[in-house]
């Protein structure tokens, strides 16, 4: 996760009461966001939650029905041209012309950004080097791997030197190595150039690794928002799992705790825990005094998977602190 402080920075993106419906189906129902400059914001949500619709409104591809949204200080409804001058967009599917090479795709984007020819070539060469595409620069992009096409797609969105970049599920379909390469590129954009990243993703690890703040969107509403640690703290369910060598030791251990989950067949005991070292030490001290030494133990703390499942209603067993 990015460690860059976002305290007191001006907002790069804001929405207030943003709504959107298609026919009688509401997609966004009063979305409120404030995203500081030079930060990474990840919007999580299941399919149909409204993530892509949010990106499309903020990038002026579609209009919202109600509420307001600003990007770089410009109202997206009234200042669309100014917004488009500030942003870059990488969608779910690579917008790469397979008949053109990487160099030609980049030059085409430079022309669309109305860059002088020399400046366009300079930026294209710099991006090819940065994204490790120089050796393949002259080959048709249809011959590229999925990871190379996604890198080229992101490079194309950067040709205009945007200050705010929208990445709509940018690593969908990539193998783990290519995904991590993209993560490093995204981190460097923020750390080295101070850009703002608005990221939608279904990969919870991706949000955990990259985002300063995370919003969870469910059925068009923002149901939670905070840092990764803040969101995890909302979910109860952490526990210490202990395995014993004998039934006698399991019984002695179980007798020491009021709230447990016991499995006599597996000789395991689960004890609720807040995940701290102090709690673990206290549990082990109690077991030692009772003469019940575990053969092994593991510590489980809620992760973003637990948060996502609980907040989107997929896991009714989780308890949420609001």
From TrEMBL:
In what residue span(s) does the ABC transporter domain sit? 13-244
What's its EC?
3.6.3.25
> Keywords of this protein's UniProt record, alphabetized?
Antibiotic resistance, ATP-binding, Cell membrane, Hydrolase, Membrane, Nucleotide-binding, Translocase, Transport
Cited InterPro entries: AAA+_ATPase (IPR003593), ABC_transporter-like_ATP-bd (IPR003439), ABC_transporter-like_CS (IPR017871), ABC_transporter_ATP-binding (IPR050763), DrrA (IPR005894), P-loop_NTPase (IPR027417)
Membrane topology of the entry: Peripheral membrane protein
Keyword Cell inner membrane part of the UniProt annotation: no
Provide the protein name: Daunorubicin resistance ABC transporter ATP-binding subunit
């Amino acid at each position: 996760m990015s460690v860059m402080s976002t305290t007191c920075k001006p907002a790069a993106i804001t929405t207030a009461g943003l709504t959107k419906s298609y026919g009688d189906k509401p997609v966004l129902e009063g979305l409120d966001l404030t995203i500081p400059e030079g930060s990474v914001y990840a919007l999580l949500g299941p399919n149909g939650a409204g993530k892509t619709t949010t990106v499309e409104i903020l990038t002026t591809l579609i209009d919202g029905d109600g509420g307001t949204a600003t990007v770089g200080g410009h109202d997206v409804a009234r200042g669309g041209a100014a917004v488009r001058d500030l942003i870059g967009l990488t969608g779910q599917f690579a917008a790469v012309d397979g008949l053109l090479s990487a160099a030609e795709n980049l030059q085409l984007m430079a022309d669309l950004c109305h860059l002088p020819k020399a400046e366009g070539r300079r930026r294209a060469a710099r991006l090819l080097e940065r994204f490790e595409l120089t050796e393949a620069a002259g080959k048709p992009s249809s011959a590229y791997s999925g990871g190379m096409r996604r890198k080229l797609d992101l490079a194309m969105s950067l040709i205009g030197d945007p200050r705010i970049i929208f990445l709509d599920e940018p690593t969908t379909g990539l193998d783990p190595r290519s995904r991590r390469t993209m993560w490093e590129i995204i981190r460097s954009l923020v750390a080295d150039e101070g850009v703002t990243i608005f990221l939608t993703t279904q990969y919870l690890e991706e949000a955990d690794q990259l985002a300063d703040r995370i919003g969870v969107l469910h059925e068009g509403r923002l149901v939670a928002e905070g840092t990764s640690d803040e969101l995890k703290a909302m979910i109860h369910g952490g526990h210490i799992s202990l395995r014993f060598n004998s039934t006698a030791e399991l019984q002695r251990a179980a007798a020491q705790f009021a709230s447990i989950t016991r499995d006599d067949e597996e000789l395991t005991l689960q004890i609720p825990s807040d995940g701290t070292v102090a709690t673990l030490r206290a549990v082990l001290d109690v077991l030692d005094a009772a003469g019940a030494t575990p053969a092994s133990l593991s510590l489980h703390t809620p992760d973003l998977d637990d948060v996502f499942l609980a907040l989107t209603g997929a896991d009714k067993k989780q308890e949420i602190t609001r």
